[in-house]
TrEMBL record:
Domain (Acyl-CoA dehydrogenase/oxidase N-terminal): residue spans on this chain: 3-58
Keyword Membrane: no
Name by which UniProt lists this protein: Possible acyl-CoA dehydrogenase
Annotated Acyl-CoA dehydrogenase/oxidase C-terminal domain residues: 202-308
Pfam families (UniProt xref): Acyl-CoA_dh_1 (PF00441), Acyl-CoA_dh_N (PF02771)
Family (UniProt): Belongs to the acyl-CoA dehydrogenase family.
Natural source organism: Pseudooceanicola batsensis (strain ATCC BAA-863 / DSM 15984 / KCTC 12145 / HTCC2597) (Oceanicola batsensis)
Cofactor: FAD
Keyword hit for Flavoprotein: yes
Gene Ontology terms, MF aspect: acyl-CoA dehydrogenase activity; flavin adenine dinucleotide binding
UniProt-listed SUPFAM superfamilies: Acyl-CoA dehydrogenase C-terminal domain-like (SSF47203), Acyl-CoA dehydrogenase NM domain-like (SSF56645)
Superkingdom of origin: Bacteria
Alphabetized UniProt keyword annotations: FAD, Flavoprotein, Oxidoreductase
């Protein structure tokens, strides 16, 4: 199943995600036709259990779609919709269909007003908010975690964008929620920051694979002083560094994806996002060193990927935030040594 879904998605993205489409999306044009194809393929339902109407694909396989989307520079909220559908299904809320996105809801306040729950507060830099039908987030009321499905048409949006020109809008929330909009979960859900960090880690890994591929190709094609620049030791060192950073980031991101919804997730996603952030800085900078001035031009595709990884690096927690989480977890661990902390099967969520 995973190979079929990945092959289908890869063909779809290769056929339709072009340099022109990324340019148009960055200028504010929503790629409606491509989104309809993605919906028809059911890609956003891959992480939803079959009982809830999804494909029931294993997390590591379903979330591989996010890495593919990153590798193609997809300018659509597939990753956000994929994870939002899974969160709604986990809270036994109806899946509304259409385009969804996620946001950190720590700044939201919930209060009971009669038979309804009123939500108020501010959501900051919500990915693709103006292109989404609903924003999925979570907040606490009476000590219990609640998943919220907020209709975008009832929110006040303040448009903004990230480095790549993708929508990152602020949203002012002040509305009464119906039973279809809010659900109480029986156990604490992973915070939206962690879920967002997961999809950003995977997307960064995918985008860096494309950046590396473009850099290798350019180094082989560009001739200077009578030979390809890829023959020069300095360029070879750059490419080797990029390859190592990309491989390490992909491994960490895939480990986090496999551990989704297990006790290990909190640690693996922290490691993945921290690793992705560190790699994004190095890989992006070295790619532009190799390409020189042409990599900065609007006509070249490189900037669509480097701008994305640099923007994603800062979303849903920076490497400073996530290494802090790892440090606090290590210091509070009952294990005698750091080695046992990182290898214990219970911590990693592996079967005993």
């Amino acid at each position: 199943m995973d190979s079929m879904i990945h092959d289908m998605a890869d063909r779809l993205f290769r056929d339709h995600v072009t340099h022109r489409l990324r340019e148009d999306a960055a200028s504010g044009q929503f790629p409606e036709a491509l989104w309809m194809r993605i919906e028809e393929a059911g890609l956003a339902m891959a992480l939803v259990p079959e009982a809830a109407g999804g494909f029931g694909v294993l997390p590591g396989e379903a979330l591989g779609l996010v890495r593919l989307a990153g590798a193609h520079g997809l300018p659509l909220p597939l990753a956000e919709t994929l994870i939002a559908n899974a969160v709604l299904a986990g809270a036994n809320l109806a899946l509304p269909g259409g385009r969804l996105t996620i946001a950190e809801g720590e700044a939201l306040r919930l209060e009971r007003r009669g038979e309804k729950i009123h939500a108020s507060g501010h959501l900051t830099l919500v990915p693709f908010a103006r292109w989404a039908n609903r924003i999925v987030t979570n907040a606490v009321l009476d000590g219990a975690d609640h998943v919220l499905s907020l209709p975008v048409k009832e929110l006040a949006l303040d448009p903004a964008q990230d480095l790549a020109g993708m929508p990152r809008d602020d949203a002012e929330v002040d509305l009464a929620l119906t039973e279809a909009d809010v659900g109480v979960v029986s156990r604490p859900v992973e915070g939206m920051r962690a879920l967002g960090a997961l999809i950003r880690s995977l997307a960064i890994a995918g985008a860096m694979e494309t950046i590396l591929e473009m850099s290798v190709q350019y180094a082989n094609d560009r001739v200077q002083f009578g030979r390809p620049i890829g023959k020069f030791q300095a360029i070879q060192h750059y490419l080797a560094t990029m390859a190592g950073e990309t491989a390490a980031s992909r491994t960490a991101a895939e480990m986090a994806a496999v551990s989704y919804d297990t006790p290990a997730f909190a640690l693996t996603v922290a490691a993945a996002k921290a690793r992705a952030g560190e790699a994004a800085e190095k890989v992006g900078a070295l790619a532009h060193q190799i390409h020189g001035a042409i990599g900065y031009t609007q006509e070249h595709s490189l900037h669509h990927f480097t701008k994305r990884i640099w923007g994603w690096r800062d979303e849903f927690g920076t490497e400073l935030d996530w290494t802090g989480e790892l440090g606090r977890a290590a210091l509070s661990s009952p294990h005698d040594t750091f080695w046992h902390f990182i290898t214990d099967s219970a911590v990693q969520g592996a079967p005993a």
